[in-house]
Every structure is written in structure tokens, then in C-alpha cells.
Amino acid sequence: MAHLLVVESWVGSMSRLLPRAIREGGHEFTFLTRDLHHYLRSAPEGTAHPLLGARNVVTADTNDTETLLPEVARLHSVLGFDGVISSCDYYLPTVARIAGHLGLPGPGPEAVHDACRKDATRRVLADAGVPGPRFALHEEWADLARAAREIGYPLVVKPVDLCAGMYVRRVEDEAELAAAVWALADFPLNARGQRRVPAVLLEELLTGPEVSVETVSYAGAVQVVGVTDKSIGGAPAFIETGHMFPAALTAADRGAAEQTALSALKALGLTDGVVAHTEIKLTPAGPRVVEVNPRPAGNRITELIRHVTGIDLAAAAVEVALGREPDLRRRETGLRSAAVGFLVPETSGTLEALDNRQLTATPGVSPSRSRAAGRS
Questions:
Q1: Is residue 373 part of a domain?
Q2: Residues 36-90: pLDDT tens digits?
Q3: Distance (Å, rounded) from C-alpha 203 to C-alpha 122?
Q4: How much is the pTM?
Q5: Cβ(164)–Cβ(320) under 8 Å?
Q6: What single DSSP character describes residue 44?
């Protein structure tokens, strides 16, 4: 039996999948958080949150890494951790720092930092010759306006340190660019109370289908588990409205997407101890990297993969965090493909009731009761 340190988590499906994978692997965990009530509020009424299945629940300021490192070292001397893990993007760099500080398995802190910072990802991939959009990074309005004209409208505005598509917008002209930049400036802290970097990333608008390449890195080797199709809506935002696994691609397109993802992971140094989710646009000029996420895919993609292949990416994430070779053998499940869709309202308001009797009566459809599409 191994003992993992779990540092924060999303409150959606992975907050349930990760504790389950730890338990089914015969392991136990200590949960470290700055605000336990953040998770308790997300538990379905009348049920205990799976994170409360931890051997220990410890409260500490997970937003202050420099203070946290010696505190975790003291915990390690008493509790003895064999690995450290998180499903929440905002704490992946912290987890990498902790692993390095304690001498535990995991990718290097610099690699994780570069993957989690969109501007750093762009610079690293560009230097390595991995194809991506033209981009510019600035803080001042005059510089942003000039760079936007050089890249050309329409283009994409991105924060460098938010996730789940927050404040990512397509803009058609300078007026829309100004509105997007000012909206971002009014959001100085992320959902976990961490202060944001004020720089704004401008990117060339990529056209074409979007897919994601799911991989597992262990002992310097990266294995592709599969390619997922993605549906995007909610313009001018980029909201994921559904996924299908495996993506319906030609062998050439699938191979090109996989090779592009592998090149990105190699350039970033994410070749050991990480389950990754790399998003790719299949443009008319070839695959282009959208972003690289050094953690398992969200939005039920891991469950689609498990239903089709029998491979459990949550369990794989646990095993590589412990420095162990994950089980990536495909099994016969009786399914050749699986898909998930999310209901995205076109107007704002309060949802008072949901009648899913028709859905539950439809063969092959399994309505989810979890907040799979939401992250906080």
C-alpha cells in the first residue's frame, strides 16, 4: 500500500475519479487544501464527498508555495508520502515543486510551469519548431493594439494562466479586443484566489477541427492512448460542448496529430511521470498545438476512454505519480466508440427543474449527475 499526498482538486468528475483510482489501486491518501468547504459544497446532498475518504485531511495555505514546502516536508517526515498528485491545473506547478523538494517521482517543475503558462508554452514550442499559431504577449494597450494589427483580425485573446477556456475570446476588431482586454483586467484573481499575471496573449485564429491527444509518460517513453474529437460552441468564447472517443479521423490525420503532440511533450520535457491532454487544431496547413495540459483530460474524456479501451487514465495518473509503470493494456469492452455532450444554454437564468426521463429511457445513453462540465 502506497500513501499519496493529494494537493487540492477540481470539484467535478476528477474529484471523484481520483480518490476512486487511489482506493482501487490499494493505496491511501492525505488531502491537503486551503479551504475544505470548497469541496464540501460540491458534494451531492446527503452524500459524503469522496475526498473525505482521505486518511488525513490537512489545511494549509496551498497558494503560498514557499511557505508550503517546509510544511509539507514536516508532514512527510511524520506521514511518509510515496507520491504527490493533483487534478487542478492551478496546483500542478505546486505539486511538481513538492515532488522535487521531497525527492518524489514526477515531471520537472520547469516543464510543468511551462506547460501551465500559455505564454511559456508558446515560446518553448516555437523555439523547438513545433507548429503553433503566430502569437504576441504584452501588458500595455498600445503594444497589444499594435501586435493585433500585425497578427491580423480575427484573432484570439487569452489569459496566460487561466484554464477551462476562461476569458478566451475570438475578437473581430480593435473595439472587441479592447473589451476583451478590459474584462480580463477586471479579473485579477483566479477561482482559487491566486493573483493572475496581467500579461495578455494574442494568437492567430486557427481554423479546422479540434482534437485532443491523450498520452501517458513513464520512464522517458510517451505512449499515445488515443485521440479524442472535440465539439466547440459558445462563440465568441470557445466552450467545449461535447467529445467523442476515438475521433473519426483518417489514419494520416490521426498520425499527424499524434506526432505533433509527441513533439510538444518532448519540447516541454514532459516525458516522465505525467498523464497529458494535448489539444490540436487540424488546420488546412497541418496540425497546430492549441495547448498542452500536464494532467488527465476533464469533461468525462477519461471515462469515454475507459468505456472503449478499458484503460483507466485516473489510475495511470496515480501509478506514474508513484513512479510505477501504469497498466495501459487495452481490453475488450464491447464498445467501439463513446461520446458525451453538454447542455450549454443560449441565455442566462436559473435552472429550476430538469426532466431526464426521456434520456434515461434511451438505449446507450447514461445521463450524468455530476458537475462534469464545470470546474472551480
A1: no
A2: 988 888 776 667 788 988 999 999 999 999 999 999 999 999 999 999 999 999 9
A3: 10
A4: 0.91
A5: no
A6: P
